[in-house]
Amino acid sequence: MLEDVTVAKCLEFAVETEEIGAELYRRLAGKFSSDRDLTELFEGLGRDEEKHGEQFRMLYEQALPRFREHEISPEQQNYVRAMSMSDIFSAGKGLAKDVEGIKTREDALERALGLEKATLSYYQAVREITGHDDILDALIAVEKKHVVKVMQLMVTGAKFRGLADSY
User: Which of 94, 96, 114 is nearest to 28 (CA)?
Assistant: First the structure.
């Protein structure tokens, strides 16, 4: 959870979130290596999370000078703080923890969906502070596609063939 809400802290938290996601997906890909669909999904999501971490680092470098003196209203601070309180961001019980406890395909997909939904909500809250930014907008668009892809596998059992697929 974020205590001190600044643009810098929000973006640092986003980088940490992407690192959590990449680690989770690496571990899930290994754990479910006998299920090709899940392995492909988790490997692809893991690669995306690593790339997103780099993009947030770039956004940090570009945005920091612009937002150094930026005032964040108490309402915005509380909203971002609330969005950062998801279980996935909790050090003791975050979604990247206890991968050994994930036993089934459904459990793995639920964990992935939880991560994707929480990060999407958090990034949308950050965008309310920063306003329009091409990098952040692109990251949010990809996170939305991740939510849809994971849900697609959950609902239909369909194979993951790429982000362009639809139900």
Answer: 96
Classify the phi-psi angles of 27: left when phi > 0, otherwise alpha if psi is within -120 to 50, otherwise beta.
Answer: alpha
Contacts of 131 (CB under 8 A, 6+ apart): none
* CA dist list (Å): 139 to 33, 80, 121: 27, 17, 12
Q: pTM (2 decimals)?
A: 0.85
pLDDT tens digits for range 13-53: 899 889 889 999 999 999 999 999 899 999 999 999 999 99
Domains of the chain: 7-156 (1.20.1260)
Q: Is the dihedral of CA 150, 103, 114, 9 positive or negative?
A: negative
